[in-house]
Amino acid sequence: TSIQQLNFPLSSHFARDTSRNPFNTQYSAGGGSFGAAMAVAMGLCPIAIASDSCGSARIPAGFCGLASIKATFGRLSTSGCSQIFSETSHTTIIAQSSTDAAIVYAVVSGLDSDDKWTHDQPRLTLTSFGPGANLKTTKIGFWKEYFEDGNPAVVTICTNIIKKLEEEKGSKLLGVSIENLHLIFIAHFASMSAELVSYLNDSPNLLNDCNEGIKFHINLSKSITENDIELVHKTRTWAIENLKNIFKHCDC
Fold it and tell me: Closest Cα partner for 57 from 40, 75, 43, 37?
C-alpha cells in the first residue's frame, strides 16, 4: 500500500497512487499507515501491524472507522520495524473493532529476544474484557476543553459515547488536563526531525527523490543543536511524569 515519502506528513508525493478512503474516495484515508487501515476497512485482512510516531496508525484508523492501539513503548516488539524514528515510533495494531485489537494485543505482546525493551514488562491481563465487561470501577480521564475542540458532528458522537459509559456502564469521569501541550508537541516533532536527519546521514540517497517540502524540512532540521535535543528530552521526561501522575487517578 502507498505511504508518504519517508512516512513524513509534509509530503504529498507517493511512489504509487494514493490510497483513498474506502467509504468515500473523495476523502483521505489519513496519513502514515493509511494503506494498511484502508485494507482492514475494506475487509482485505482482519488486522494490520503498523508503526506510529505521531498518529501514523491512529489517525488513519480513525478516518476509516477502525480501532487502533499504540501501546506503551516496550509492550510490543519493534524488531524488524523501520528505525527512522527509533525513539518515538511504536508498533501499533489496527483492527476492525476494539475487541479484535485487544485480542491481537494480547497475542503479539510479550518478550522478544530481539528487542531489549520487551524484557522487563509486566504480564498482560485482559480483565473485565468483552461486551458484558463490568466498567463500574473504571475511572476515565476526561479533558473537556481539548475534547470539545473539534468538528461538531464528531464531538456530538463522542460525547454520547462518554455519556453512555458514565450513565449505562457506571464508569466515573475525572477531569484532567495536560499542561503546555503545545510545547510537548514541538519537542516530539523536533525529536522526530533530528532522528530523520541522523537516518539520512547514513542513507543520503533516499533524499534525492523527495519533494521540495521534505528537502526544506530536512535542511531546516539540520539546525537543531545538541542543546536543543537536551531541552527536547527534558520536556519529554516532564511530559511522561505528568502522564504518570494522571494515571495514578485514572485507568484510561
Answer: 37
In the numeric block, which cell numbers belong to residue 57?
496508525
Residue 126 backbone dihedrals phi, psi, to 5 degrees: -100, 80
pLDDT tens track, the chain, 252 positions: 666 666 665 445 454 556 678 899 888 888 778 888 999 999 999 999 988 888 888 889 999 999 999 888 888 988 877 767 777 788 899 999 988 999 999 888 888 888 888 888 887 777 666 666 778 888 999 888 887 778 898 889 888 988 888 888 889 989 898 888 889 989 988 888 888 888 888 877 877 777 777 788 888 888 999 999 999 999 989 998 998 999 899 988
Residue 157 sits at φ, ψ, to 5 deg, of: -60, -45
What distance in Å separates the CA atoms of residue 158 and residue 132, rounded to the nearest whole number?
20
pTM, 2 dp: 0.82
Indicate left, alpha or beta for 32 from its phi (over 0: left) and psi (-120 to 50: alpha).
left
Residue 13, C-alpha cell as written in the block: 508525493
| Single-letter amino acid, residue 75 | R
Write the DSSP assignment of 128-159 as a string of letters. Answer: T-STT---TT-EEEE-HHHHTSS-HHHHHHHH
CA atoms of 242 and 107, how far apart (whole Å): 30
Residues of 80-113 as b/e, b for ≥16 C-beta within 10 angstroms? ebeebbeebbbbbbbbbeeebbbbbbeebbeebe
Residue that has been written with the C-alpha cell 475487509 in this structure:
43
Sheet holding 67-70, edge to edge: 47-52, 90-95, 67-70
**What gap in Å lies between CA 110 and CA 112, rounded to an integer?**
7
